[in-house]
Amino acid sequence: MIHISKRGDFNRFKGDKAWLNRYAGFGVSLIIRLIALLLSLVVSGVLIYSITKLNPVDVYAEMANGVFGTSRRLWVWLRDLALLLTVAVGLAPAFKMRFWNIGAEGQILVGALATSACMIYLGSSGISNTLLLIIMGVSSMAAGALWGIFPAVFKAKWNTNETLFTLMMNYIAIQLTSFFVPMWEHPKGSNTVGVINADTQMGWFPSIAGNQYLLNLLIAVVITIAIFLYLKRSKHGYEIAVVGQSENTARYAAMNVKRIVVRTMTLSGAVCGLAGFLAVAGADHTVSTATAGGRGFVAIIVAWLARFNTITMVIISAMLVFLNKGAIAIASKFNLSNDVSDIIQGIILFFILGSEFFINYKVKFSGRAKE
Amino acid sequence: MCAERAAFWEGNVLSSKSDAKERNRVVAAGDGKPLVEMTDITKKFGSVTANDHVSLSIYRGEILSLLGENGSGKTTLMNMLSGIYFPDGGHIRVKGELVTISSPKDALDLRIGMIHQHFKLVNVLTAAENIILGLNESRRLDLKSVRLRVKQICDRYGFVVEPDKKVYEMSVSEKQTLEIVKVLYRGADILILDEPTAVLTPQETRRLFDVMRNMKNDGKAIVIITHKLHEVMEISDRVAVLRKGCFIGDVPTQRTSPQELTEMMVGHAVKLNIERTQPENVRKCLEVEHVSVVDADGVRKLNDVSFTANGGEILGIAGVSGSGQKELLEVIAGLQDALPGGSVIYTDMNGKTSSLIGKTPMEIKKLGVQLAFVPEDRLGMGLVGNLDIADNMLIRTYTEGSGMFVNMKKPRKLAEEIVKEFDVVTPDLQTPVRKLSGGNVQKVLVGREIAGSPSLLMSAYAVRGLDINTSYTIYNLMNEQKRRGAAVIYVGEDLDVLLELCDRIMVLCAGSVSGIVDGRAATKEEVGLMMTHIGGNADKEAGRK
Q: B interface mutation test: which of A246, A309, A361, A364 has the most B CBs within 10 A?
């Protein structure tokens, strides 16, 4: 008989050492996660071997090589990490408030659209690149914020469901993009925007100390630390924590719940919009319906696995981006189809997400049910 | 661990062997053989042991009180008898036969029925429909014969049930009666009542006790789970006491006293009286006039309520639960809108007055009103369960200081002081408050509210779920605030405590003020009548006619 019970608090330490329980509990969940990761590698290894007869160890080594092998690859990994991290960090305030913003995808896209618009219309106006970049950043945040404010106002005023609302806002953003792409089409007839300002590089992130993607990384790091402090130490962060736990308590504590909801979603949308700026100005230099590339949804996994702690999000994003890049690298190296990389990613994610169950619940096997 | 606890009582409690004769004397209709025998029952929830090798026997024709503080495992033990939980260890014998009870149906097949604290009735169905719900006696729904059998049961024991009344039209007491009839209809010989009087007025309680005696005389075995001592003394033949999951002992009611039972429950001697001082320097603090509240569904929750709360005095608020107590306190705190036409005037220590009605909590705070509020829902309103003690201290003061960051020094210090002063049991200050026990949660909440030296302290069911020691700590704190000159509003459910603690008691009945009585002069019966009839004289008038 299988007996499933909620994993209680770790309480092996008594008396003066009771505070150790928290760290021990953390250790237990860390060990479970590591076991899950190891198991996922073994299962993928078996699968890889059974399909390709390749030595899984070689494959994993190639995975690491594919991501970290050259300085260029390393920087691309960092660039993508910065982008995913920014989105996840943007979700943190909303999620901490239990406002299920699944509209990051749309917020990134409108941020990207605003960025592109600035690049196209202001690129040849003669202003300096720095000023242009600042205008682009601010516009992207404004656009993202707008996408966040709508569902928040409706939630605050009429208690609409924020999950459906933010989800539908994604489709509006995608349709808007489809509208603008032919308008900004370049060259004519390609039905793509093409590389914006390819000749002047106006509105592109400048290389810093020879590193093309250093600015992406710096922006992501600053945002991560800023949101960390905002959530942990600021009065607003405290309000967010209380509203998220119990609206009744928030009202009891004389907080203006509606204002807090709208303000927080404005911030969440703005940071996600800024991710659109990073994607366009810092990486793609173009815009399409694929600019967000599902990051708005992957970021939800990042935010949850990190339990909304922005610093932990760094580790989770790094791992997920590694997984994605590595799987693509081995697929091309060993001439496997792209589906194999998807399968490997799927297996590893399955184990990691599945381990959450074992972190929260204890499973006991007993030979026979006791009377 | 249990052995130690029980050993403390060996001197006082009859040992099981010499008890047999005694029990026969007490149990009038019993044949001396137990109807139900629970042996070494153990039940664990995670790391918490709810029942630790508990052994208990239940006899025919006997009312057994199962006494213990909240969390002592009374309900868990009975839930295992009624098939809600399955024991981790131990045996249950019914009429001498070893049985396995794995569902409420198994329990009913063994003629065991339980009346839970929260009723399990379908609101839109009638009494008769609820009674036969889930029974498949015959294919055809024969409500006529159901009504007949219900009537027989009612006549036999003195119940009043209207078979065609819908449940949502019933009072709490009627619903409870229906639950009991439902269980009897299903043929139960062993009835377990989980805190049946918690929701009843004294008059309703007396009626319930009458039918319980009738059932006992009819040879049924009855177990009443309770923590109210005077009820134990009044109704039961035998008392079994649990403490922290352990069986402490059982005694014939006639041979024990409330003092002894308390000591068995708590584990040490407790002083059971509240020191009520004469109010000094009484000043007007809060004047509430013509306040009415309608809820979101258009139901009138408060109806033209007017009263005055004075500084240096404890004003008790009595009433059947849901009579508008919550709404009244929330209107004063700015958490609930009142209908136009009412007024709430607050007078501070210097005689300055301000109107609170229609203001948000934020506006009330900005007026400088020193309002402390201990709400009924501690973890859902007063505190944030997932935050630690220090963070919860911030709730009242987080806006203090300039700049966008909070200052954690003061709340941390306050948290340390409260933990020390009220003996809050917690591993450390970083533990989320939801992990503390109910009593410790309440200490944290009350401690924080008192720390702001309030001029008006409102509390709703401040001792609900607390052990006796903590309850008395809370009563003392209320008295301390009264001596300080604060106006204390104490919403309570235990009339004995209200009459011992409060200077004046306002009785609410269905949202209206039924009357305001002197706490020193009023009797329990008087207050009880006022809880069910406006002015409390409906029965008296009827009696005169």
A: A246
Whether A341 contacts A59, CB under 8 Å:
no
Q: How far apart are CA A86 and CA A282, in angstroms?
A: 13
Nearest to A246 among B88, B384, B435 (CB): B384
Q: Among A351, A260, A306, which residue's Cα sits nearest to residue A88?
A: A306
In sequence order, the 6+-apart residues with CB closer than 8 A to the CB of B217 are B29, B61
Distance CA B125, CA B127 (A): 7
Closest approach of chain B CAs to the CA of A149, in angstroms? Answer: 22
Cis peptide before A187 (omega within 30 of 0): yes
Q: Are B222 and B253 in contact (CB under 8 A)?
A: no
Element spanning B516, H or E: strand B512-518
Query: Which residue positions in chain A have pLDDT lower than 70?
Result: 1-3, 8-12, 14-16, 18, 366-371
Q: Which two tokens stand for residue B521?
A: 């002069």
Phi and psi at residue A98, to the nearest 5°: 60, 35
Whether B404 and A235 lie within 8 Å, measured CB to CB: yes
Percent residues over pLDDT 90 in chain B: 47
The span from the CA of B499 to the CA of B501, in Å, is 6
Residue B30 is encoded by which pair of tokens? 């019993």
Instruction: Please state the φ and ψ torsions of residue A199, each to the nearest 5 degrees.
Output: -80, -45
pLDDT digits (tens, 9 = 90+) for B31-50: 578 999 999 999 987 777 88
B424 or A257: which carries more pLDDT confidence?
A257
Phi/psi of residue B527, each to 5°?
A: -65, -40
Q: List the domains of chain B with CATH numbers.
A: 2-111+189-266 (3.40.50.300), 283-370+454-544 (3.40.50.300), 384-452 (no CATH)
3-class DSSP state of B420: helix
pTM of the predicted protein model: 0.80
> What is d(CA B80, CA B339) in angstroms, rounded to the nearest whole number?
48
Distances (CA, A) of B274 to A297, B68, B233, B270, B447: 60, 21, 21, 12, 20
* Residue of B1, B47, B371, B378 for testing the chain A interface, max A β-carbons within 10 Å: B47
Who contacts B106 (Cβ-Cβ below 8 Å, separation ≥6)?
B83, B99, B100
Q: How far is CA B487 from CA A20, A317, B303, in A?
A: 44, 55, 23
Would you kindly state where each structural domain of chain A is located, as residue ranges?
1-54+334-371, 82-324
- The DSSP code for B489 is E
Question: Which residues from chain B sit within 8 angstroms of residue A252, using beta carbons?
Answer: 333, 335, 361, 373, 375, 381-382, 395
Q: Which residue carries 């005095």 as its tokens?
A: B313
- The residue whose two tokens read 């019933």 is B170
Distance CA B370, CA B364 (A): 9
Distance of CA A93 to the CA centre of its chain: 13
Where is A6: in which H helix or E strand? strand A2-6
